[in-house]
Design goal:
Layout (H helix, E strand, L loop, with lengths): L12 E7 L11 H14 L3 E6 L3 H15 L5 E7 L2 E4 L2 E4 L12 H4 L1 E2 H11 L3 E7 L24 E5 L18 H10 L6 H15 L7 E4 L3 E3 L6 E3 L1
Parallel strand pairs: 1-2, 1-3, 3-7, 7-8
Antiparallel strand pairs: 4-5, 5-6, 8-9, 10-11
Length: 240
């Protein structure tokens, strides 16, 4: 049947961009910078960007609700980008706000934001495509509370593309003091600016560049259930 024609009018695209750096117990170097640059680029590409940096749990939840409202009933594309500390607990992945201080595993659900809750927000808004990018695999400062290193592998729900900065169970590099951004986001920003950048191709090239730049220490990972192509620069989708 070949490729369908790209839709003439780009669909509604809303990006929730979160970057948390100022964790009292274990501050990060580049997460907030990563989120700022990513939000700026996505905005230039036509996304409606909901952005929070160094956010508390309440601020993160408010941003999720705002994103859901912007997407509701518009058959749109929802995107989550998170840079900061993340952790897995019993095969669920949690994004840590700066006010999280779990002392044991039972504290985590009430102090963090589960990735699944964001996907639920997208789904209830009626999105037709979801893209989740988690540069959240840095060393977890609350190791005793986690049930595994890094993030847990998840199968992408229908219509969803999941991208991790490194393979499940591993940790990603935060970048050096002389670099404005972490390795993964630095490579991602470069690839997103290709005018013909389809989502799978973008992350395939990012994986190659990150693996090479880290000498194999960091290998990004993706899971997808997309049935449409998506081109970041134009926001157009083409059914396969």
């Amino acid at each position: 049947t070949g490729w369908g024609q790209a839709r003439a009018v780009p669909s509604v695209r809303v990006a929730l961009v979160i970057g948390n750096t100022r964790y009292p117990a274990a501050p990060l170097r580049n997460a907030a910078n990563d989120a700022w640059v990513m939000g700026k680029l996505l905005g230039e590409m036509g996304f409606n960007v909901v952005s929070v940096r160094d956010a508390t749990r309440a601020e993160m939840q408010e941003a999720v609700a705002k994103t859901r409202a912007a997407l509701r009933g518009r058959d749109g594309v929802g995107l989550l980008y998170f840079a900061g500390h993340g952790m897995q607990l019993y095969w669920r992945n949690y994004l840590l706000p700066i006010d999280a201080a779990p002392e044991n595993a039972s504290d985590v659900p009430g102090q963090a934001v589960e990735v699944g809750a964001v996907l639920d927000a997208f789904r209830t808004a009626g999105t037709r495509m979801n893209i989740v990018v988690l540069d959240a695999c840095r060393d977890n400062p609350f190791g005793a509370s986690a049930s595994g290193k890094g993030l847990a592998p998840l199968d992408a729900p229908p219509g969803t593309f999941l991208a991790y900065a490194t393979a499940p169970g591993n940790v990603a590099e935060d970048g050096t003091a002389t670099e404005a951004n972490g390795l993964y986001t630095r490579c991602l920003i470069k690839e997103l600016q290709r005018t013909d950048a389809k989502v799978e191709e973008v992350f395939k090239r990012v994986r190659l560049h990150v693996r090479q730049a880290s000498n194999g220490r960091q290998v990004p990972w993706e899971s997808t259930s997309l049935e449409d192509d998506f081109v970041f620069a134009s926001g157009q989708a083409a059914r396969r």
